[in-house]
């Protein structure tokens, strides 16, 4: 069984603070132990919400809201890691997902890369960036309502 572990951000990180080398080393040690134990599938840090967007889909219409966002206790329903050339391209992919699912809210944020932290150089010729698209929960998803067969078929396409 796979589990997703998330943590919340705070004003310090939302202000764009960079992690210390000590913090990077401590987190790296933990991630190494998790990888060695074969429990780690993937781990990503996100940029501040000021660098992201929130997509609101209602009645077939899309509204793009630029960050930053206020903290709240909204629950995620799912996520995807996308590799795209721009946040606009990530918005288009998330819009295709929303077209399948209907009225949803999706947060999109750039994923923190090792070169963003100065740990390694950016690969030569890399023109894309990874973005996380987080699909927020609603009453139906929290109640365990499964997507319709039509939605599943469209997502597979």
Distinctive features:
157 residues; single chain; five-stranded antiparallel β-sheet; 22% strand; alpha+beta
Order of helices and strands, N to C?
Answer: HHEEEHEEHH
Number of domains: 1
Question: Structural class from helices and strands?
Answer: alpha+beta
Arrangement of strands in the largest sheet? 2-1-4-5-3
The fraction of residues assigned to DSSP E strands is: 15-25%
Please estimate the helix content. 25-40%
- Largest sheet: number of strands, sense, barrel closure: 5 strands, antiparallel
**Number of H/I helices:** 5
| Radius of gyration from the alpha-carbon trace, in angstroms | 17 Å
How far apart are the termini? 25 Å
Residue runs with pLDDT of under 50 for 5 or more positions: none
What is the tally of beta strands?
5
Q: What's the overall geometry?
A: globular
**What's the pLDDT, averaged over the residues?**
85
How would you sum up this structure, described in words?
The model has no long low-confidence stretch (mean pLDDT 85). The protein has 157 residues and is an alpha+beta fold. A five-stranded antiparallel sheet has the order 2-1-4-5-3, with helices on one face. The chain has one domain. A hairpin with a 2-residue loop joins β1 and β2. It has five helices and five strands. The longest helix is centred in the N-terminal third of the chain and has 16 residues.
In short:
This protein has helices spanning 11-14, 21-36, 87-101, 139-142, 149-156; strands at residues 53-58, 61-66, 76-84, 105-110, 129-136. With 157 residues, the protein is α+β, with helices and mostly antiparallel strands.
């Amino acid at each position: 069984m796979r589990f997703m572990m998330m943590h919340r951000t705070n004003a310090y990180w939302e202000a764009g603070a960079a992690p210390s080398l000590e913090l990077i080393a401590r987190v790296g040690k933990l991630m190494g132990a998790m990888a060695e134990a074969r429990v780690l599938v993937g781990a990503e840090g996100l940029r501040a919400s000021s660098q992201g967007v929130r997509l609101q889909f209602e009645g077939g219409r899309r509204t793009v809201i630029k960050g930053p966002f206020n903290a709240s206790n909204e629950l995620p329903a799912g996520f995807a890691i996308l590799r795209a050339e721009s946040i606009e391209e990530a918005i288009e992919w998330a819009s295709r997902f929303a077209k399948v699912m209907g009225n949803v809210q999706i947060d999109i944020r750039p994923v923190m890369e090792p070169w963003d932290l100065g740990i390694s150089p950016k690969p030569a010729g890399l023109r894309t960036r990874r973005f996380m698209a987080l699909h927020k929960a609603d009453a139906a998803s929290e109640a365990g309502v499964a997507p319709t067969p039509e939605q599943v078929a469209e997502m597979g396409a």
